[in-house]
Amino acid sequence: MEGKVIAVFGIANHRSIAFGISQALREAGATLALNYQNERMGRSLDKIADRLGDPWRRECDVTSEEAVAGFFEAVREEFGGLDGIVHSVATAKREELGGSFTETSWEGYELAQHVSAYSLIRLCRHGAPLMEGRGGSVIAMTYHGSVKAVPNYNVMGVAKAALESSVRYLASDLGPRGIRVNAVSAGPIRTLSASGVGGFTSILDQVAEKAPLRRNVTTEDVGRAARFLLSEDAAGITGQVLYVDAGFSVMGL
Ligand code: 1JT
Predict the structure, then answer these.
(1) Active site includes 118?
(2) Which CATH architecture has domain 5-245?
(3) Could you confirm whether 143 is annotated as catalytic?
(4) Nearest alpha carbon to residue 92 among 67, 79, 111
(5) H-assigned helices in the chain
(6) pLDDT, tens digit, for every residue of 14-52?
(7) Could you tell me which of 48, 39, 35 has the C-alpha nearest to residue 89?
(8) Interior/surface letters 183-200, b for 16+ CB within 10 angstroms, e for the rest
(9) Cα–Cα dist 249/22, whole Å
(10) What would the pLDDT profile of 58-112 be if each residue is shown by its tens digit?
(11) How wide is the angle at C-alpha 227 spanned by C-alphas 251 and 67, nearest 5°?
(12) Three-state DSSP class for residue 159
């Protein structure tokens, strides 16, 4: 990944999936451009930035068209172009990750869709011009609750279904410009987001018991798979969802 510039969206702390991906990319010699959502998240990113070689970073709320345009303009000024984008951003109201799916509010649905799914389209719209003619690669993080009804995942499952479908449409749209778009479907990982989910420990234990590999996945596992999709080794792969879940999703019972 030497000489490649990759924009990574979604590092909240050292437990973040985006942090694991960033470390894997850096180990392979990539140059990183990171976002943070707001000033507070910027300060928490400052504390772990040294572990990623103090990379270039800029505030960018993915729900703002202007902020995303500004981020990629700044990347163009700093690096002159871009080779990849990592989308590892999602939000849902806590009360909607649990309880009755039928009670999902429009506000909660809209928020989950905007932050977790539509934002990928926005990143591609503004990022694709910087990747033109460089064989760009985009990845987005997803979860199996997009294709199966997983208790409590609720509104996020619908947002991830939209995200995975968007990956296919973006792959179709951007393929002729030499840009690949894929998703990585990770097994459950204890991140800051997941810590707000009731019963998450039990979810992790059930996966470790039932998955073919008899363990949970780590951000390092996900990081290496993500790096593969961002690299030339995956030059023939686009529009796919690659499962990194210790095999859990292939089990029938
Ligand atoms: C969000 C959260 C997106 C948790 C997420 C997520 N994608 C995966 N997880 C972990 C998870 C959560 C549940 C689950 C399995 C995995 C929380 C904040 C909003 C975004 O249920 C089996 C509920």
Answers:
(1) no
(2) 3-Layer(aba) Sandwich (3.40)
(3) yes
(4) 111
(5) 17-27, 39-48, 65-79, 106-113, 119-131, 154-174, 192-195, 200-210, 219-230
(6) 999 999 999 999 999 999 999 999 999 999 999 999 999
(7) 35
(8) bbbbbbbbbebbeebeeb
(9) 26
(10) 999 999 999 999 999 999 999 999 999 999 999 999 999 999 999 999 999 999 9
(11) 105
(12) helix
Residues 58 and 72: their CA atoms lie apart, in Å, by: 10
From 36, 118, 153, 243, the catalytic residue:
153
Atom of ligand 1 nearest to the CA of 188: 16
Give the separation between CA 136 and CA 5, rounded to whole angstroms. 10
Structural domain boundaries of the chain? 5-245
Q: For 241, which DSSP code?
A: E
Q: Which pair of structure tokens corresponds to residue 33? A: 């451009």
- Render 42-96 in DSSP notation, one character per residue: HHHHHHHGGGGTS-EEEE--TT-HHHHHHHHHHHHHHHS--SEEEE------GGG
Q: Residue 197: which pLDDT band, with cuts at 50, 70 and 90?
A: confident
CB 26 within 8 A of CB 32: yes
Tokens of 78: 């700093």
DSSP lists the bridge partners of residue 184 as: 141, 242
Closest Cα to atom 16 of ligand 1: 188
Type of residue at 195: S
Q: Do 215 and 246 touch, CB atoms closer than 8 A?
A: yes
Residues making up the chain, counted from first to last: 253
- Is there an atom of ligand 1 within 6 Å of 159 CB? no
92 CB within 6 A, ligand 1: yes
Mutate to test the pocket of ligand 1, among 62, 148, 156 (most ligand atoms within 8 A of CB): 156
